[in-house]
Amino acid sequence: MGLQIDVIDEQILYFLTEEARHTSAPDIAERVDVSAPTVRNRIRRLEEAGVIRGYHADIDYEKVDGRLTNHYICSTGNRNRQEMAQRVLDVPGVTNVREIMSGKGDLRITVVGDDTDDLTRIAQDITSLGIEIDDEDLIHREYFRPYAPFGPRDEVVSPVTGVAGLAGDADVVEVIVREGAPMAGMTLQEANEAGLVGSDILVVQINRDEEAITPTGETQIRPGDFVTVHSRSGVTDETLEAFTDY
Questions:
Q1: 243 membership: H or E segment, kind and range
Q2: DSSP secondary structure letter of residue 219
């Protein structure tokens, strides 16, 4: 099962896909309306889960001494497709290999060569592995854009990122503390004394920057904190408003 992500994660992925090199966590935070530490924490989580696999330069090889980019549609037959894909990557000039869920044409290979003779050499190296080249095309231009459904929303993004119902009326809620929230800047003890959180509310964990905090009464709640809240009787709208002003 894949990692479950929310609308904030989706927009982070969108803006990184759009321009990763010149897009900082504060830039994304401003556009998504969360804090920069929240963005950094979420990027790290997406990286650790393998959703973000890396950050790569988009290179126009034709502008480098007129190099040629070719696309091969290949078949592995009954061989181990994953193993063959890894072996193809070792061929000098191969830049990308995709496994396709089909019998015929189950590998799509992109290569870069100095000239047509070099492309011929690469093709021979590929076929020497026992892979059949079914078709090929010389690539002129490629066009990319971020995945549109992950793009900016017109509606306000909810700061509540997850709700889990437990036995009885108990809830566990994950929430991002907003700027201007009543609890922002308060310690948990101060928030309790001010009546912002009831006696059945327990802040289980706070994720802040690179740190996972097990809170005490003296722990201060800060804007951008990713807070996990447990309540035996269910988390009310009033409690959520104390963290989010939403």
A1: helix 237-244
A2: P
DSSP track, 58-117: ---GGGTTT-EEEEEEEE-TTS-HHHHHHHHHTSTTEEEEEE-SSSTT-EEEEEEESSHH
Task: List for the chain the helix, strand, coil content (%; round to 5).
Answer: 30, 25, 45
* CATH number, span 61-139: 3.30.70.920
Residue-wise pLDDT tens digits, 144-156: 888 888 888 765 4
> Residue 154 has what pLDDT?
63
Output the six-digit token pair for 11: 């927009």
CA–CA separation, 211 and 49 (whole Å) = 18
Which CATH number describes the domain made up of 160-244? 3.30.70.1450
Q: Which residue is associated with the tokens 């010149």?
A: 22
Which is nearest to 130 in space by CA: 92, 78, 89, 90?
Answer: 78
Q: Assess contact for 181 and 223: CB atoms under 8 A.
A: yes
Sign of CA dihedral 158, 29, 172, 188: negative
45-61 pLDDT, tens digit each? 899 999 999 998 889 99
Q: What is the pTM of this model?
A: 0.64
103-143 pLDDT tens trace: 789 999 999 999 999 999 999 999 999 999 999 999 988 87
Q: Does domain 7-56 correspond to CATH entry 3.30.460.80?
A: no
Nearest to 52 by CA among 106, 105, 15: 15
CA distances from 78 to 75, 84, 89 (A): 9, 11, 19
Q: Which residue has the higher pLDDT, 31 or 224?
A: 31
